[in-house]
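Sequence design from tokenized structure. All designs in this work follow the same two-part layout: the structure record, then the generated sequence. An example of the structure record is given first.
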């Protein structure tokens, strides 16, 4: 189905839009004993039907064949053995799977394409443009922590990609961090980026790690949104006072033992900013990864596949509509909707 048709379908009635899911594979996570490491579009659709989700933003996993797995180093290395630039194969395969393998389900997917702001930006921009002319594309996504690239590179080295987003009016979802040893996806950098680019719609993933100054500032910006992706496991991190979420003095004040009350409180505090997204299949996070100083992080966080959508279901109708439909449409298509 064409992009305009899917847009009309979304506008025609109140539906549930999940703004954050992944399909594809991550060989790196698999080889490092990580979970999850894969999800097919067909399996995502089965989950969506089971859970009452009408449309999902889908992106590839965070891995690309362009990055080399090196057991002996925490630094990312690259290789052109399989492809010429980041996410060449992953973006192509995502769109092929959604449109050419499963055309009967394709209107359920709102594909966002992955990019690396720091490496081979011209080649990436040309490819993203080519793909977006062939297939419906609804936005861009980057997860700079995993590829050790700085968000702000998008304004310098990565400018061809930013120019493309502007030209095609594509919103951008950014993985976020507050971890002191993760300078690559700082939630502060993200909200400042949104402020400098009022014509680009920005989504800060993972509830901006509950960082109140960032949530407050995002709330003041019409073009800046925050998604709830992997919400329950982030609440668990807050209960543990993990460095993966904001420190207590800077954390949005809520009872993190009760994720439902936190979801509601965020939606009430920031009524036009919050977007519901599940991060399927990353409702689990069992992974090993390196921080900037070369320390290996070993995490085990669990959340069953139904739990995220159950929180949404239990919200008052008006709030559910805001965070699963109205705000999500505004993020995807802008004020015209
Ligand atoms: Zn994600």
């Amino acid at each position: 189905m064409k992009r305009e048709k899917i847009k009309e379908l979304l506008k025609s009635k109140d539906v549930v839009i999940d703004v954050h899911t992944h399909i594809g594979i991550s060989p790196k996570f698999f080889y490092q004993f990580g979970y999850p490491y894969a999800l097919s579009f067909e399996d995502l659709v089965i989950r969506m039907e089971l859970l009452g989700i009408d449309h999902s933003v889908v992106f590839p996993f965070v891995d690309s064949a362009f990055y080399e797995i090196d057991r002996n180093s925490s630094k990312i290395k690259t290789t052109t053995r399989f492809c010429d630039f980041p996410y060449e194969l992953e973006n192509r395969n995502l769109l092929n799977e959604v449109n050419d393998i499963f055309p009967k389900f394709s209107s359920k997917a709102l594909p966002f394409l992955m990019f690396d702001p720091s490496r081979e930006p011209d080649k990436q921009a040309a490819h993203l443009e080519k793909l977006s002319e062939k297939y419906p594309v609804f936005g861009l996504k980057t997860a700079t922590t995993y590829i050790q690239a700085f968000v702000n590179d998008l304004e310098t080295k990565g400018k061809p990609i930013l120019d493309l987003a502007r030209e095609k009016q594509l919103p951008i979802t950014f993985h976020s961090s507050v971890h002191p040893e993760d300078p690559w996806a700082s939630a502060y950098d993200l909200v400042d980026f949104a402020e400098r680019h009022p014509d680009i719609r920005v989504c800060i993933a993972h509830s901006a790690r509950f960082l109140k100054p960032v949530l407050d500032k995002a709330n003041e910006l019409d073009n800046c949104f925050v998604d709830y992706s992997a919400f329950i496991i982030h609440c668990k991190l807050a209960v543990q006072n993990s460095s993966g979420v904001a420190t207590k003095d800077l954390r949005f004040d809520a009872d993190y033992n009760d994720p439902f009350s936190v979801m509601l409180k965020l939606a009430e505090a920031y009524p036009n900013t919050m977007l519901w997204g599940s991060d399927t299949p990353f409702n689990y996070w069992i992974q090993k990864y390196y921080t900037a100083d070369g320390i290996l992080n070993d995490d085990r966080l669990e959340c069953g596949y139904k739990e995220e959508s159950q929180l949404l279901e239990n919200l008052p109708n008006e709030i559910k509509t805001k965070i699963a439909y109205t705000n999500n449409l505004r993020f995807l298509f802008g004020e015209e909707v």
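The chain has one domain: 3-333. We note this feature because it recurs in several other targets discussed in the main text.
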